[in-house]
Amino acid sequence: MKWLVLVLALGACQQAPAPQLELPTLTLAQVEAKRGQPGVFLFDANPREFYDHGHLAGASWVKFDEVTAAVLPADHAATLIFYCANEMCTASHTAARSALALGYANTFLMPQGFIGWKKSGRPVAGRSHLNRVDGQ
User: Fold this and answer.
1) pTM confidence score
2) Where do the domains of the chain lie?
3) Which of 9, 66, 81, 85 is the most buried (most CB within 10 A)?
4) Per-residue confidence at 22, pLDDT binned at 50, 70, 90?
């Protein structure tokens, strides 16, 4: 089961050239500390099917290449955190760059993505029986 989830995650995320602009990142612990605070928004840039199987509680799904002001908070001073599957996935980079271009200066990536979050034992939302990465 672990390999199936990994294959789905790697195949599902956007495979693009390396990011041109270095985007600020947050560790899992930093995201955990910020999650749920006022003015902090989590965005999952994985394919919708992957999001439905599992995501960080409180995260909103965004289509990585269609991030517009309509899907982001009205407050441009808000903290936006984007993630996708793992360090190899660049969909979150594309989404975060769109947010930056729209004037959201407090935009971050969580490079470890959903898989890193889940493997660390942190809580997830979604169809949890389908998003296991521990091989059980």
Assistant:
1) 0.82
2) 2-130
3) 85
4) confident
